Amino acid sequence: MAEETPARLGIDAVVVGVRADTPHVLTFVTDGRPRLPSGAFAPALDRTLELAARRVLSAQAGLHEGYLEQLYTFGDRNRDPREVSGGPRYVSVGYLALTGMDEADSSALGGTWLDWYRFFPWEDARAGRPEILDRAIVPLLRRWTTAARDDAGRTFRARVAFGLDGAPWNNEAVLERYECLYELSTGPEGADAIATLGEPMDLDHRRILATAIGRLRGKIKYRPVVFELIGETFTLSELQTTVEALAGMELHGPNFRRLVAESGIVERTGSQRRTSGRPAETFRFRPDVLAERPDPGIGIR
Q1: Which residue among 136, 255, 261, 262 is buried most deeply as judged by most CB within 10 Å?
Q2: Quick count: other Cβ atoms within 10 Å of Cβ 188?
């Protein structure tokens, strides 16, 4: 009977903030590569996994409260290179935290906020279809699927994930797209492609980040999480650009304003804010909507 491989349990956290219409993720650097805030689960110290995550975020990001949700458990074999040389298997519970970037005391702790699209440049379609798709990614996908003509599942995955051959683009399928690119990078059709299509991260933290982006993109449509990332008061233009930054897509302004008005998710403050043009009316999140609707998010169409 084979000897069981020992395991250790940890926390990996994706901390997201938005500034200057750009979604950022908090990172630290290990061996030249960005990594997510991470720490060990301490059974004698941590009564729950969530408290362990909050302890890690407090120690590494200066975050003591705020929005936090569990993402997924990551436990693939050899995700930590130390396992290859006999170390314990590393299983981590991923968390998504949302914060105003000024609230995280990251700079004093050695952290850096990075634009999340530097890791996934094909996910930002706010200025139109990303150039990297047709220049580099689609040709790789075509070679990858052609090399496995007997694998209809591979062709279907690529078509659905990347909106090929008439399939619609699903902005939530961030992880599915990353996993296609990761898989083709292990074969001769696109060896090491994933390392050149966006900046690498330490260990499998890029996969964890992809999971978080897809979760957040889906969640803003039915939960008011976007208000965790914007000031207490805001203009509708500021709200729209924040949603666009997260969703990676441009929204039709009049339609967006109509959807927000119909949802009852915001209310007027009675004040205005001077912008680059004429003064703009300011709004705030309306908490009563949580008791009125089961899905008070920002509908994106």
Answers
A1: 136
A2: 9
